[in-house]
Prior knowledge:
The chain is 26% helix and 28% strand. With 105 residues, it is an alpha+beta fold. A three-stranded antiparallel β-sheet has the order 2-4-5, with no helix packed on it. Strands 1-3 form a two-stranded antiparallel ribbon. It is flat, with a radius of gyration of 19 Å. The two termini are 36 Å apart.
Amino acid sequence: xxxxxxxxxxxxxxxxxxxxxxxxxxEKKLFVEWAQNEIAVVPDFHKQILFSDEAHFWLNGxxxxxxxxxxxxxxxxxxxxTPLHPEKLTVWGxxxxxxxxxxxx
Length: 105
């Protein structure tokens, strides 16, 4: 992280996130504490956890701003007009102790 900070300071650029992540920090801390307590009671508890996520890929070239970082000296406030219902491909995936699950929706 120090290298990233030094590099951005050297270039005088900042990262602008479209969604603030700091508010999720407390939720993540509570989840870790809960999981540690469960593991103390059931040693194989970690084998029962399934982590999943999904991503949307627009076929017209639109980029999801939630997953995109724009490096600039100033916040660009970029707006891109897109069709109301563009064609997209949704991919769902999950990780657990038994392996990886993937599905195209």
